[in-house]
What we know:
By secondary structure, the chain is of the alpha/beta class. The protein has helices at residues 13-32, 89-94, 99-113, 156-166, 179-188, 245-252, 261-266, 271-278, 283-300, 304-331, 344-347, 350-363, 377-388; strands at 41-42, 54-61, 65-73, 80-88, 120-125, 129-131, 137-139, 173-177, 199-203, 207-213, 229-232, 337-342, 369-372. It folds into 2 domains: 13-42 and 193-367, Hexokinase, domain 1; 54-177 and 379-388, Nucleotidyltransferase, domain 5 (2-Layer Sandwich).
Amino acid sequence: MSSSNHLPHLLDQTELERIYVAFTEAIREGLAHEGKEVRALPAFVAPPPAEPRGRALVLDTGGTNMRAALVSFAPGAEANIEGLVEQSLRDRIAVGLTKEAFFDAHAELAERLGAPPHLPVGFCFSYPFEAFADGDARLIKWTKGLAIEGVEGTLIGSGLGEALSRRGMEPSSVSVLNDTVAALLGGASRQGARASRGIGLIVGTGTNMAAFFSPAEAPKLGALGPGPMAVNLESGNFSPPGLSALDDALDQISDPRGGQRFEKAVSGLYLPKLMTLARSEAGEWAKREGARGLVERARRGDDADAELARVLLLRSAQLVATGLAAVASVHGGTDVVPVLAEGSLFWAWPEYRVEVERVLGCLVPEIPCEISRMEQANLVGAGCAALSRSLGPVERPPN
């Protein structure tokens, strides 16, 4: 895949191996040192026990909606979601939200559930934050078009806990995690002894991976605890070697320029933009229909647009496979690596998963990877985080 090629194309074995080796090295560097391309951010939560048990209040805030549920775990049974309420975050923002009102809107959802007091709380919060060992997190910046004044730079878990307490729910603890770590933990809750080798994968509007790593695999985490810890890789920022000239052109008009190169070549937000750059006459439908339209063209079309859509989607699958193979390589060994995959792009077209599995078999034939999906993985994973956090607090700056 040479930058002299204008259009993206399907990758051959040599190109795949080159990207896989570079990705593996980038992950190892991120696990050893701060400030690397693959940031490898500690999530300060261990794999859940083989049979999680207990009950937790969970909340999930993405780019569009807020959700709340009660999740319970019992030995020998799947996680049970006892209730689920949802509200449009965009609708609440439209009428104006202060910092206090933002957290109170979540507490209001929990109150509608009838959540009892003193439950542990898991908060899946899909925005850039700095995590701390006590489960709290500081919002770095709003993304996805949100800008609620007064929240950036403050502690998310503390703000939510105070709002819940004002309504009489007084949580015993609050654990903040992002959607990729939630997918990892959700999958781990049913993977038993294999959980510590698991990977959480998101391929939708964006893309990311999370996995558990031991201190031996992640030297920079060694001082934080003796056992494996969940790590948010922020893998979308990896720069695959040899991207096409079209990828370079997209990067020049997409923020952050020079960053998120893997995400820009893989995810549902950017693939329609690559289509538009490659074939300007496809611009209107690509803009209107987005990634969903791209998948439909690939599935049913027989023209030049359909062929390019298939190439873009299958190349995305190939690149995703190089990332999974890289994590599996860092883990080493020959035991099964379970992958919990989330995201509309991954599951929208059966051939996508087939191509991911084919490339994995070529790159790491000695390491079997099993890909699965899970209903409400974010909620289950948030429940696991609330119930299984085992590391003590560390010193951090005041709010």
